[in-house]
Amino acid sequence: MTKRVKEILTLLDEEYTTEYKCYLNYETPWQLLIATILSAQCTDERVNIVTKDLFQKYTTLEAFAKADLKELERDIHSTGFYHNKAKNIIACTKTLLEKYNGQVPQSIEELTKLAGVGRKTANVIRGNIFHEPSIVVDTHVKRISKRLGLAKEENPDKIEFELMKVLPKEHWILYNIQIIAFGRSICFARSPKCKECFLKGYCIEYKRKQGKK
């Protein structure tokens, strides 16, 4: 770990603490899996609103696996991309029941074979359920990692591997949590609060705007 990366992580720890938290509401591993599938191209706040009723209506994996596609589409409509999400949720829950006896698998290889599950979703599960060091590249992590010069790629999977090389393994999950908080409060996609930013001294984009090399 370079001195620069260590300083960035220390500042993040000081600002947001080292407390582990998940921004999606869930009670069981399979509920987190479904919530994360729903979170694609959707805010966590919206997903939590939808799952509050959804998990009361469909209380078991079996209920999701047997769900009527059109009805499930209506139930999750406000999360966007509802047709694919509903189809994937039904297929995913069927696989969990048929192949894994209702348990959510741990390995990234098995997780990414489930319908609707890419590396991002798999890493959310690995980090929150199994406490496996993992980096979740959402829009905040992608945008801010590039602004800080910790990543250069556009593809989220490639950014994940870039970050794995520069961040210490014990900080992978925390980095996700802290950067999401940072992205929601200061480092917006548009009109970031640069004057209030405690990381502006490390921000490539800010230096560029200031005409610095």
UniProtKB/TrEMBL annotation:
User: Does this entry carry the keyword Cytoplasm?
Assistant: no
| Any one Gene Ontology BP term | base-excision repair, AP site formation
> What is the superkingdom listed in this entry's lineage?
Bacteria
Cofactor binding comment, as recorded = Binds 1 [4Fe-4S] cluster.
Matching entries from InterPro entries are given as: DNA_glycosylase (IPR011257), Endonuclease3_FeS-loop_motif (IPR003651), Endouclease-III_FeS-bd_BS (IPR004035), HhH-GPD_domain (IPR003265), HhH_base_excis_C (IPR023170), HhH_motif (IPR000445), Nth (IPR005759)
Which residue intervals define the domain HhH-GPD in the entry? 38-185
- What GO molecular function annotations does the UniProt record carry, in alphabetical order? 4 iron, 4 sulfur cluster binding; class I DNA-(apurinic or apyrimidinic site) endonuclease activity; DNA binding; DNA N-glycosylase activity; metal ion binding
Cofactor(s) for this UniProt protein: [4Fe-4S] cluster
Protein keywords: 4Fe-4S, DNA damage, DNA repair, DNA-binding, Endonuclease, Glycosidase, Hydrolase, Iron, Iron-sulfur, Lyase, Metal-binding, Nuclease
EC number(s) per UniProt? 4.2.99.18
Catalytic reaction annotation: 2'-deoxyribonucleotide-(2'-deoxyribose 5'-phosphate)-2'-deoxyribonucleotide-DNA = a 3'-end 2'-deoxyribonucleotide-(2,3-dehydro-2,3-deoxyribose 5'-phosphate)-DNA + a 5'-end 5'-phospho-2'-deoxyribonucleoside-DNA + H(+)
Top class in the EC scheme: lyase
| Residues noted as binding [4Fe-4S] cluster in the record, renumbered to the chain | 187, 194, 197, 203
Q: Report the function annotation for this chain.
A: DNA repair enzyme that has both DNA N-glycosylase activity and AP-lyase activity. The DNA N-glycosylase activity releases various damaged pyrimidines from DNA by cleaving the N-glycosidic bond, leaving an AP (apurinic/apyrimidinic) site. The AP-lyase activity cleaves the phosphodiester bond 3' to the AP site by a beta-elimination, leaving a 3'-terminal unsaturated sugar and a product with a terminal 5'-phosphate.
Q: Which NCBIfam families match?
A: nth
- Family membership, please give it: Belongs to the Nth/MutY family.
Q: What is this protein called?
A: Endonuclease III
Q: What is the lineage of its organism?
A: Bacteria, Bacillati, Bacillota, Clostridia, Lachnospirales
Q: Which gene encodes it?
A: nth
